[in-house]
Amino acid sequence: MMTIAGQPFLTDFQKQQLISQFQQKTELNVSQISTQQVYVLSRELSGDEHKKALDLLAVDQSATLDAPQDNQLQVIVGPRFGTISPWASKATDIFNNCEIEINRVERVVVYTLTLDEKIDGDAGEKLPVDAEQLLFDRMTQSLVYDLSDVSKLFDDQAPAPLNHIDVIGQGQAALESANTEFGFALSSEDIDYLMNAYVNELKRNPTDVELMMFAQANSEHCRHKIFNAQWTVDGEVQTKSLFQMIKNTYQSNPQGILSAYKDNAAVMAGSDGMRFYPIPTDAMDANSIHPYDFHQENIDILMKVETHNHPTAIAPYSGAATGAGGEIRDEGATGRGGKPKAGLTGFHVSHLHIPELSEKWEQSGQLSTQDYGTPDRMATSLEIMTEAPLGSANFSNEFGRPNLCGYFRSFQLDTSAAKDGSEMRGYHKPIMLAGGYGNIKRNLIEKNAITKGDLLIVLGGPAMQIGLGGGAASSVDSGDLDEGLDFASVQRDNAEMERRCQEVLDRCWALAGDDVDVSNNSKDGNPIVSLHDVGAGGLSNAMPELVNDHEMGAHLNLRKIPSLEAGMSPMAIWSNEAQERYVLAIRPESKDQFDAICARERCPYAILGEATDIRQLIVDDELLDEQPVDMPMQVLLGGTPKMQRSFERTESTLPALELGDVDLAESITDVLRHPTVASKSFLISIGDRSITGMVVRDQYVGRYQVPVSDCAVTASGLVALDGQPMTGEAMSVGERTPVALISPKASARLAVGEAITNIAGVRIAQLSDITMSANWMAACGDDVEDAALFDAVHAVGEELCPALGIAIPVGKDSLSMRANWTDNESGENQDKSVVSPMSLVVTAFAPVVDVAKTLTPELINGDSAFYRIDLSKGKLRLGGSILAQTLSQLGNECPDLAQPSDLVDFFNFIQAGNEQGVISAYHDIGDGGLLATIAEMQFTSRQGIKLSLTDDNLLGQLFSEELGAVIQVLPENVAALMQLAEEFNVADMLSLVGQSSEEDSLLIQTPTLMGADTLRFSRTELQQAWTQVSYQIARRRDNPACVQQEYDLIADASHKGLIAAPNFDLNQKVEEPYVNSRADSDNSRPRVAILREQGVNGQTEMAAGFTQAGFEAVDVHMSDLLSGRINLRDFDGLVACGGFSYGDVLGAGSGWANSILFHDELRMQFVRFFARPDTFSLGVCNGCQMMAQLKDLIPGAENFPRFVANKSARFEARTVNVKVERTKSILFKGMQDSILPIAVAHGEGYATLDNNEIDGMAKHGQLAMRYVDSQGHPTETYPLNPNGSLGGVTGLCSTDGRVTIMMPHPERNLKAYNHSWKPEEWDEDGAWMRMFRNARAWLR
Question: What whole-number distance in Å separates Cα of residue 702 and Cα of residue 1165?
C-alpha cells in the first residue's frame, strides 16, 4: 500500500456547517476542522510512475499530512471495508488508461478536529458515537483513527464457504433458523413449500445459495403476492385479484398499448418521426466508422415508475441514487433494447423539523411529532430530503437523463382522538419514486426466443459484497429485520458504468432497421436476442427470469461472474445486488461482434454459460466439488401457493374540521410555507433538465424561472418531419395520499384526476391517448389498511379508468409501509410505530401532437381575467387539505370526483381552448387550493392579481383542493371561451375569480372584505414565504452566501428575469451558399469528429447541430483514436462533448485530458490537428474542461484557465443569460453583443482567471461569452452566474478564434421550443443554431 497526501476535502462553508452540527448534536466543543484527501494505492509507485501519479491526482510533491496536535483528534473515513467505492473504480480506470498498471486507487478523507477541551479518559482516543455519525455513513463507509488501518481496504479474504441447511436431519427448525439468520423473509407457506420440495421431491438439503435465490425471487417485492392473492371480503370470496382489477383497465382500453405487464417497462404507440443516431458503415467490421444520421421510423414510448423506499430510509443518498439507476435500467432493458429519455422523482416523508423553521403543525398534540422521534437505523425526514434528492439527481446527471418532473409531500399526523401519539400516521418509511419514459423501435418491443446453446451474458460492473437480500428487506416492515441485514441490503451507485452499458445497448439496437417481421425472425442485425436488467436479488433473480420467459433452463459457471472481492461466498456472488448490470442472451455467432462493441465502449461483460432446453438451473463452482445451485425452474419460480387474504370492514366516524378560530391572513402564509406547497427549487436546480436537446418543458417556468410547471414535455426527435409540427411525449404525476385517511376511494380518484389536470395543458389528441402507471403503497396486514388498498384498487381499476378510457399497463406495489421501533430513551422500552396512509401515486404518460402548443402557468402581463374550473361544482370540501394539515387536523369531508364524464369534459375543453388560442396561461389546482395556484402563477411574471370571491365558504374557495384549474384569458378571448364552455358542457364548472391589477400584489376581496378591509399581500412577502423551505434546506446543504443571493432576487424590483436581445436573424441559413461547395470532390460534406470518452453523454444533440448545418458528424470514441481505427487527420472539425468523463473523479475533464497528454502518439495527433489552419475545435462543458487542459497543444491557448468547483459547491442546472462578446471566435460571427438565454448544467465551471488575465484576453478577442444580469451587465450574482466565475466569464477562444471552449450548452437549444423561456416571436430555430451554421460557413 502507498499513500499520497492530497487537497482539502471540504470548503470553508462546509466546515462551518459541520462545526455547527457538532454543536447542535453532540456534547463536544469543536472549534476548528481541517480536512484532507489522501489517496491510497494498492502498490508502491516510484520514479516516472510516481511523478505521473502526482500529475494525475493534481497534487504537489511537497503536500504532506500533518500529525495532530495535543488538542486535536484525527479521524479517517473511507469506503466500507470489503467494498470498493465508485470513485475508485473510475480513478483506477484513469491510471490504467494512462499506462500505470494498478489494481486499485482509493481515496480516504482525514478529518482533524480541534477540541476546546480534551476528551475524558479512555474515550480520549475516540469520538462518541453521535459525533462519529456526523463524519461518516455507516452504511457505505468505515471510520478509523489510524491511517495504517486503511490497508484493510486491500485485504483479500479467502473465499467464504458454501453452506447447506440441514432440513433432512433437523427438519423445519433448520429452515426457520436460517430464515432469521439470513433475513430471507420467507412466509410460513414458503417454508412449507420448500420443506416439501427438498425433503419429498429433491430428497436433499438445500444450499444457502438456493434459499437466498428463492427468497429474493419469491419475495413480495419481486412476486407481488398480495396483488395476485385471492381476497375474501366480509366473508365473501372476490372474483378478481387486485392485479386482475388493474388489468381490467387494459382489457377495457387496449388501443395504443404495444406491451403490458410482461416486460421491464410498458410500451405505447408514439408517433412517426426522425430519430438521430450513428450506425457503422459495416456492422460486421469492428474498424468501420460510425457516422450519425436521421432515420424515419415509429418512435414508440416506453414507461416505467419504480419505488426505492426501504434503501432510501436506510441510506438516503445511495438508496435514491440506485433507485434512479434501477428504473433507468428497466427502460434500457425493455424489449431488445430501449433508450431512456426523461425522468421523474418523487418523495413522501414525515415532518421535516428544520431547526431554523419550526412550524406549529410539527409541535401540536400532547406528544409533538418531534418528540415522537425516528428509529435509530433510519434517516430523519430532513436527512432524507437533504441527501436523497442529491443521490437521484447526481445519478441522472451522470447517466445523462434529464429529470423533468416530480413531487414532494411532507405529511405526519397523530389521528388518535386523545392526540397521545397512539395513532401516528406519516412517512418515516419514506416513498422514493423513480420513473420516466424512453423510446424504442417498434420492431424491438418483443424479445426473441432464446434457443438451446445461446450464450448467457452479464453486462456491466463487477459483483460486490453489497445489496445482499435487498428484495426481501424491501418486503418487510422497516424495523423487523436485524439491523445488520438492513445494512447489508444497501447498494452503491456508479452511473458512469451504467452509461457505458447503455452505450452498448444503443450500438446494438441501432443495427436493427425497422422491419418487424425481420426482427421477429431474429434476422435484423441486433445481436441481442433477449435482455433483462439486474435488480432485486441480483443475478439469482435476473438469470432465471431471462431464461424462464422462454421456458428454457441454464447451465452457468459461478466463477465467470466478474467479482472485485475474493472473499465473497457463493451466496454473495450469486445474489448480491451490485448495480449497473444487465443479463442478456446472444447467438453464438454474434460473439465476436458483441465483443467488439463492448471493447469499443470499454464496457465489461462475461459469458456465464449457455441456455439449455432442460428446465433446470445449474450453477457450477470450480472451487467446489458440488454445485451451489441445481434446481428445477418449476421449484424456483413455478409452484409457490397462491396467497389468501381476507378482511372484515369496520365503520368509523371522523371528527369534522374545526375552523372557527382560523386567522385568514396567517393561514395564507402558512399554506404557502407548507413543504408540500412550497417551492421545490432545492430539489430541481441540482438536476440536469436540458440534456438530450429534446426537452421542451422543464419545471422552471417563465422569464423568472419559477419552479411551477404542471408536467414534463419532450420532442420525439431532434428535427420534425418536413412541414409537420414537432410531436413528442409528456408526463405528469398525481397523488393526494392524506385524503386516504378519510376515503381511500376518493384519494385514488383524486390521484388519477390530478395526473390528468396536470397534463391537460399539453396538446394531446384525446383523453384515451393517456396511459398511466399506478404505484401502490400501503401497510398491509391490518384489516383497515387491507380494506383501504382493496377499495382504492377497485375504484381505479373497475370504475374510474375504464370510464375514462385509460389503461394502466405498468406499476409497482410496496406494501410494507410501516416503521416499527422500540424507544428506550426514558429508560422504559416503548414500542412505537408510524404507519403511512394508503398511498397511490399515479403517473400519466401521453403522446403529444404539437409540443410548441404547451400551456404553462406563465402569465402574460397586462389586462386579463382569471377563471376557475371547479369539478366539484361548488362543493369545495376541505378534508385532508394542506389548510387542515397546518391546523393539525384531518376532517371528515374530502374532495372527490363525482362523475368521470366531468373530467372528460374538462380535458376536452382545455384542449379546445389551447387549440383555438383562447387560453393564455393554465395551472391546475392541487395542494394549497386556489390560493396556491394563483400565487404561483403570479410569481412567474410578477403580475398583480385581484381575487373577487364570495363570503360564503371563503376558506373553501381559497384552500379547497377539489380537482380543477385556473386559466388566464385576455379580454378579446372571453366571448370565445364562454362559447367553448357551453359546447363542452363545463359552463356549470366555470367561474370568474379575479382579474389582473397594476401593483405587484395579491388582493383578495369579498362583499364584506372591501375597501380598507381588502386583504392585501405583496408578491414579495408571499414568494418569500413560499420559498422558505427551499431556502432553509439549501442553506444547510449548499454555500449559504449563494443561497442568500438567490433569495434576495425575490424582492429585487430591478431584477427582470431572462431577456432575449439577438443581433441577428435566428432563422437565417448563413451556411447555405457553401453547402454544396465540395460537391465536386470525393467528400461533399466536411467532417466533424464528435469526440467522447467513457462517461460523456451529450454527443447526440451536438452531432445533430452540426448535421443540420451541413456537416458529416462522426461518432468518435477515445478508444477509436487509441486503437488507431480513426485518425483526426481525416476531419475538418473536432468537438469535445459534455458529460462526466470517468465520472470526473480526478477533477473535471482531467482523466480525459490526461489520457491524451500521457499518450505520446495521441498527443502528437492532437498537436498536428490543432496546428492545421483549416480546422476548428469546440469544447462544451466537460469537453471545455478537458480542452482547457490541452492548452499546451493548442496555438494561442496558453492562457486558458482550469475549471473548478462552482462557488455554490453544487451541480447547477439553470437557464441563464449570456452575452456574446466581441470575440475572434469563428463560431460567433455576426452574433457579437447579442444577449441570449442558454442552458447550463455543470458542477465545476468556475474559471480560474483573475481580472488582469480577463482584461488581457478581452484585448486579444479571446473572451467569447459572459453571464449577464437582466440589465445586460456581466454578473457574479448567483444563480444568474451559476458558478461564480469572475466577470461572468464562461466562454473563451484561442487567439486566432479557431478553438472555442464554453461551459454552457448551445447544442441543447437548437430549436425555439427547446428554450425553457423564449420570446413569443421565436418560432423556428433556437438562439444557438447560428453557431453551428457559422462553423459550416467558415469552412467555405
Answer: 46
Choosing from 754, 1101, 1221, 1307, which is the catalytic residue? 1307
If you write DSSP's letter for every residue of 593-613 in order, what string do you get? HHHHHHHHHT--EEEEEEEES
Count Cβ atoms within 10 A of the Cβ of residue 530 and give its class: 0-12 exposed, 13-18 middle, 19 or more buried: buried
**Dihedral, 683, 684, 689, 695 alpha carbons, nearest 10:** 120
SS3 content of the chain, % helix, strand, coil (to 5): 35, 25, 40
Place of cell 482533524: 112
How far, in Å, CA of 876 to CA of 896, rounded? 10
Eight-class DSSP state of 1096: B
Catalytic residue flag (residue 1305)? yes
Region of residue 331 (left: phi > 0; alpha: psi -120 to 50; beta: else): alpha
**Number of helical (H) and strand (E) elements in the chain, helices listed first:** 42, 51
Residue-wise pLDDT for 106-147, tens only, equals 999 999 999 987 655 444 689 998 899 899 987 778 999 999
pLDDT digits (tens, 9 = 90+) for 991-1044: 999 999 999 999 999 999 999 999 999 999 999 999 999 999 999 999 999 999
Residue that the C-alpha cell 483479500 belongs to: 156
Q: Is 540 in contact with 548 (CB distance < 8 Å)?
A: no
Q: What is the pLDDT of residues 299-321, one digit of tens each?
A: 999 999 999 999 999 989 999 99
Could you tell me the CA-to-CA distances from 5 to 79, 829, 1017, 1293 in Å, in that order? 17, 47, 56, 35
C-alpha cell read off for 1306: 448551445
The per-residue pLDDT for range 1089-1148, each reduced to its tens digit, is 999 999 999 999 999 999 999 999 999 999 999 999 999 999 999 999 999 999 899 999
Q: How far apart are CA 629 and CA 437, in angstroms?
A: 36
Catalytic site residue 310?
A: no
Separation CA 771–CA 267 (nearest Å): 10
State how far the Cα of 102 lies from the Cα of 1160, in Å rounded to an integer.
Answer: 20
Rounded distance, CA 108 to CA 110, Å? Answer: 7
Q: What are phi and psi of 8, to 5 degrees?
A: -60, 155
Question: Who's near 948: CB < 8 A, 6+ residues apart?
Answer: 992, 993, 994, 995, 1005, 1006
The DSSP annotation for 1271-1304 comes to TS-B---TTTSSS--GGGEEEEE-TTSSEEEESS
1219: helix, strand or coil:
strand
User: 428, 1242, 1305, 1315: which is the annotated catalytic residue?
Assistant: 1305
C-alpha cell at 1091: 469526440
CA dihedral 1036, 1038, 1042, 1047 (to 10 degrees): -50
By residue count, the chain amounts to 1340
Angle, CA of 1073, 1078 and 1082, to the nearest 5°: 160
Instruction: Yes or no: say if 526 and 336 are a contact pair by the CB < 8 Å rule.
Output: yes
| Cβ–Cβ under 8 Å, residues 522 and 448 | yes
C-alpha cell recorded at residue 242: 387486485
Active site residue 729: no
Q: Which amino acid is at 231?
A: W
Residue 392: which residues within 8 A CB-CB, separation 6 or more? 320, 321, 323, 324, 345, 403, 432, 434, 687
User: Can you read off the three cell numbers belonging to residue 991?
Assistant: 367561474
Digit-coded pLDDT (tens) for 1231-1276: 999 999 999 999 999 999 999 999 999 999 999 999 999 999 999 9
How many Cα atoms within 13 Å fall on the side-chain side of residue 827?
0
Q: How far apart are CA 355 and CA 375, in angstroms?
A: 19
Tell me the pairing of strands 105-115 and 990-997: unpaired
User: Which DSSP helix (H) or strand (E) runs through 78?
Assistant: strand 72-79
Catalytic residue among 1042, 1181, 1184, 1293: 1181
